[in-house]
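Ticket #4471: structure output looks truncated?

Reporter: J.K.
Steps to reproduce: submitted the chain below (196 residues) through the standard prediction queue, then opened the result file.
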Amino acid sequence: MASTHDSTHDFGSIAYLKNELGTEVRYVDDADLRQRIFDWLRRAEDLPGGDVMSIVDAHLTEIRQKDGDNKGMGEFPMRRVDGDGREDFPDSCKGCDHYGSRCPVFIDPVEREKRRIIEAEHADSDMAATKRAYRRYAEVVGCHQITEALSDRIEEHTEVKENGLDLLEETHVQLGYTDTADDAAQAEAKLAQEGR
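Returned output as attached by the reporter:
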């Protein structure tokens, strides 16, 4: 018996996994598995989009927000407005060559366009190739925030995706979507379940 859920998302993407697990969770009898799926769905919902540009943009938007601003309206200007400019940048940007003067990543429209071009040129590339292009860009422009987003956020994204695939496999075994002739897949899913 194969899963018949229609999905327009790429197999294995977080969007695909959210769709599949969100649909199948209602048929899961195992309370522990069902709870782990709900926990995973909540965690996946909190992630920024699945492509590298969305992950980087979400990180940059987050660091630009002023602390304690729940409405999201107070942003650092990311350019010197008055005085030495330190008040116009988040503390996490200290150490950057542009700190206190003018952040090219946020202020320069040419740099914003370069980021869009990177994403367009790597639209069909794997995530690793796109990450490399962004790392090169971050080195040229001198932005450690992009490098941080690439290391921290994408690792988190990959971990959530791998956990989602494990849950989907376990769900398929529990629901009988895995062919009974596929003993290796059932044994692997059982070991993954026992290892939790």
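Triage note (M.O.): checked the attachment and the full token line is present. The helical segments are 14-24, 31-45, 52-64, 104-107, 109-121, 127-141, 144-175, 183-194.
Status: closed, working as intended.
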